[in-house]
Each structure stands twice: as structure tokens, then as C-alpha cells.
Amino acid sequence: MKTFPVLPLFFLATLVATNQASDSPVSHQIHLLRPKTGSHGSHVPGFSCLSWRLGVETHNIIGWKTIPAACEGYVGHYMLGHQYRKDSKAITYEAYLYAKSLNLTKDGKNLWVFDVDETTLSNLPYYARHGFGVEVFNPTSFNEWVSESTAPALPESLQLYKKLLALGIKVAFLTGRPESYRKATETNLKNVGYRTWETVILKDSSYSGNTSLFYKSSERGKLEKKGYRIIGNMGDQWTDLLGTNAGNRTFKVPDPMYYIS
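and the corresponding C-alpha cells:
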């Protein structure tokens, strides 16, 4: 497996420092995103990692357990390079334009639902040590990482969060993390700038054996039964955005590192 030594942790520290200026140059030593086919970069016979990532983001490639071994370097370069940040900025900017255009009632019931992992918090320091998704997911080691409460914010998502609050929109966090990690999750969110919310929903044991799609649909339904109007919903997985009670409009942020059904 390729290694990306000290760099990912340094890069992620830079992400935190640029929350208020996401266009600032990012200091890093890794090359920017390069195609793996064509006239630039290393050719992978019969396989395009760029095309694979497109298939993942458009929900045409589903049910996969790990990224293709041939794409470890490609995904690492993408996630640590400027393109990931540019893609995230394009999506969150569109989300803000949409929210700003709404003629909202002022009854405190307009709600925006955010996922947590790879949507509001970044686990890149963890995945950089585990091949950017080339290794089979290990829940034990990942939960040890979650317990540290040190995941940085995704700068573009944090900026969107602040803008939504300024528009008078309430925020809820809906995550597939187990309920037992509530304290670690809430501490992490507050430490990186997400300091207020209507609710943080974590997955309790009653959903054991159910898909993420079922869990998140059910919890959004509960929010609507409480009188909230889900005007926006943002996540990195299609299971965050499909199903019932998905909201008036959904926004998918990029994540080629893992797939959740």
C-alpha cells in the first residue's frame, strides 16, 4: 500500500486554519489531482479512476466495499488536493444560493439536516492512514478515532452552516454514528465551530440490522412529525439523501472513500 507519511495530518490542520478563507493557498507537498489515463499521469490499462469516481458520485457504481486498489493514489491525491475543496465549495455555494432565495416563515421550524462524517467533519487524518478506502472498513479502529474528538471541520460546510444560521434556519445533525459516541461527537462538533443546533441524532440500538437508508428516513420523519420543515439536506452518501422525508432539496458533497448502503 502506498504511504502518505506526515502530510495528511499537516494538510488537515491547514483545513481548520482556513475555515474563514477557503480560497487561501494550502501548503502541501503532494501533487494535485492528475488523471490516470490520457496524456498526463500514469496510465492504468483498461481502467480510469476518474471515471470510477464519477460513477460513484452519480450513484451508478454501488455496493462496493473498498476503492479499487489501482485507485488508492488517485483518491489520495484528489482528497488532499485542491480539487476536492473546489468541488465542495461549488456544492455548498449552490446550497447557500438556494437557501437565500427562499421566502421563509419566521416560526423557527425551517430546518437544514446535515450528515456528520465527510459532510461536516472530515475523517481524512484517519483514512490517510488506511489507504483512503482501499482497506476494508474496521469499525473498532474507526470508533477509536471518533473517541478522540479531533476530526477537523470541512471548511466549506462550516461556512455554509454559519450562513444558514444567519438566515434564521435551524440545523440538525443526523449521523450513523452509534449513540454511545454522543459525547465524543458533540464535543468534536463544538470544538471546530458547530456550536449550536436543534438536535444531534445518533443511531441507537433499535435500528440494529436496518440499513442507513431506513434509519435516516425514519429519523427525518420524526423531525417532520415534530413540525419541522426540512428545507435542505446535505450528506456525502446517497443514503443520506434518498428515501422518505428527504427534504425540499438535497445536496451531495463528494466522498469517493467509502460506500454506505
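(Above: one complete record from the training split.) The beta strands are 110-114, 170-178, 199-203, 229-235, 250-252.
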